[in-house]
Prior knowledge:
The chain is an alpha/beta fold. It has helices at 7-20, 53-59, 78-90, 111-115, and strands at 2-6, 26-33, 37-46, 94-103, 122-129, 132-141, 148-158, 161-165.
Amino acid sequence: MTVKLHTGNLEAIHRHAEAEYPAECCGILLGETSSETKRVTEVVPLANLRHDPDRGQALLPLDDPGRETERNRFLIDPREQLRAEKDARARRLTVLGYYHSHPDHPARPSEYDREHAWPWYSYLIVSVEAGRARNTRSWVLADDRSSFEPEALELEEGPGAAETVAAGQAKNLSRT
Ligand SMILES: [Zn+2]
């Protein structure tokens, strides 16, 4: 599938990622699907629960909480997620996936990301280098969950104008 995203929504994700730096940000992607595409119409920024280590650890324990912090892990509050899902359903929108940032790391999923992902959903990852959002890529889990595969991401500037970015292309969506 191809993920379609408006430049304004990408900007919103980048701003969120930069505001949270050096911590990871996270949020939900809402929109509509057709047979070939996931069209994101809204991004919903959520809090990273790893800012509250005790609560985070109680909800989903980390193996090494001394090394794993809000700077390299994110956790969405299940109640916030439920609220966002209900709200989406009421407005006939679908949860298409999730976004999060990688402070001073590439926009590539970690092993931890893979272990905690579900098939079908799009996982947008933004690399933030020294406080600036640099690169955004979309990933989808293979059906057997063994690995993440790059997913085509298409930016829409406005009606009729679209910039196609091939999956796996390194230069995609980077900022100058
Ligand atoms: Zn990650």
